[in-house]
Amino acid sequence: MIYHLVPDGEPFSDIDGGALSRWVANVVLGTECIVACPRYDKTWNFVPGQLLESPMQRRYRRLRGVCSRGARFFDKLIECEAAKPLEPLMNLLLAADVFWIQNRPSVAAHLAKLLNNRGIRIVLHMQNPHLRVAGFRTIAAFIAYVGLRSGQA
In what order do the strands lie in the sheet with 98-102? Predict the structure, then answer.
């Protein structure tokens, strides 16, 4: 199964959503993929069960304004147990599932460390150059931080 994670500040809506909402909807509509998002409405006309609302995910946006940004952001959240909003979704994932993360390298880095040993693949899809904001100067720095070797996905 492929799970798409819509970023914390993006409502999944044809009316209120932005470019990421539209991209995910275009890719997922008509498939069996699951969309996890902070909130959604019914404007995309998805089948019941295909959308997973994670309202606690909205806390990330507020926390990012308070905590320092960068590669260590989610490590700090885990230390203070504030990263619990994604646990229900992580518990659904099985070996060979794909967790597709949009524009959140810190989230992808943290989840890769937690999920790679379970056989769950992480895809980081960067529509914009956010690596520097997240504390990574290059893709190689991101890969090194996550602990992947060349050729591993």
Answer: 51-53, 34-37, 2-5, 98-102, 121-125
